[in-house]
Design a protein that fits this description.
With 263 residues, this protein is α+β, with helices and mostly antiparallel strands. The chain has a domain of 183 residues. The protein is built from four helices and ten strands, in the order ααββαββββαββββ. A hairpin with a 5-residue loop joins strand 7 and strand 8.
Length: 263
């Protein structure tokens, strides 16, 4: 029987703890090195925070501009819709517009050197509101409308209406709301300039052709001033402008189906 002596110990005589620890050490070292390679340094985190902060500052700076633009577009849209309703109310001679009493809360007429104001106590019907807004730019000292607009004894009228928005949100129509949208309307009612020989067809057109101009200024601030919103609307109205006395106040109405006869 032959015996072979080897310098390598037999596996069955190896120490179990020593062999296991020697095989696990390289694995632990490899895992610890991988963890260190995937981590972020403080410099990298600081750079990331700086980039995010710069982006947030840019977004926050643009956000108010976008909100102001949206508000301006909404207010301009409301004014466009209200202007169409007011022009039609004046053109039709105040027929079925009693709902205006909920929105027009004051009208002021700067008649030459006299300032006359009308509040809710007088503006109790749509006819009174439209009658005041239809006041011509020049009226005679006596009742009626002067035939010649450039003669002596003519009163210059400057009519301003204070209106809550007819369209838009319900919260903007309440006078006690901080977000209510109010505006001023300057009503200018003038004859259409044309040649007038004093007789014939020219005289008929002078008495039956008028130009209505509504100038809107918004928003109306609590201190009485107005913002930077400006818009003007024009409409040519055919028909007689007749006057009537209501409670000691002269009111004017268009009659689109009535025309004067040339002498």
């Amino acid at each position: 029987m032959k015996f072979f002596i080897s310098n390598f110990p037999s596996p069955m005589f190896r120490h179990p703890r020593k062999s296991v620890s020697s095989r696990c050490l390289p694995i632990v070292n490899r895992q610890s090195s991988i963890v260190h390679e995937r981590a972020f340094t403080m410099i990298e985190i600081a750079i990331c925070l700086a980039i995010v902060g710069f982006a947030l500052v840019a977004i926050i700076g643009v956000l108010p501009i976008g909100m102001n633009t949206q508000r301006d577009n909404r207010e301009e849209t409301i004014v466009n819709q209200d202007a169409l309703l007011l022009i039609n109310a004046v053109r039709t001679g105040a027929r079925g517009v009693d709902d205006l009493t909920n929105y027009v809360y004051a009208i002021t007429n700067y008649a030459s050197s006299v300032v006359v104001g009308y509040d809710n106590s007088y503006l109790t019907s749509g006819a009174r509101i439209v009658g005041l807004m239809s006041t011509p730019e020049f009226t005679a000292t006596a009742s009626g409308i002067p035939t010649n607009w450039f003669v002596a004894g003519v009163v210059s009228n400057h009519v301003v209406a204070y209106v809550r928005s007819l369209n838009g949100l319900a919260a903007e129509k309440w006078s006690g709301s901080l977000v209510s949208f109010n505006y001023q309307v300057v009503c200018q009612n003038t004859p259409v300039p044309m040649f007038n020989s004093g007789t014939g067809f020219g005289l008929q057109l002078v008495n039956c052709q008028s130009e209505l101009r509504l100038k809107f200024f918004w928003p109306l601030l609590p201190n009485g001033n107005v913002g930077g919103g400006r818009q003007s609307y024009r409409a040519t109205i055919a028909g007689q402008l007749v006057s009537t006395n209501s409670g000691g106040v002269m009111l004017y109405f268009y009659q689109s189906q009535s025309f004067t006869n040339a002498p």
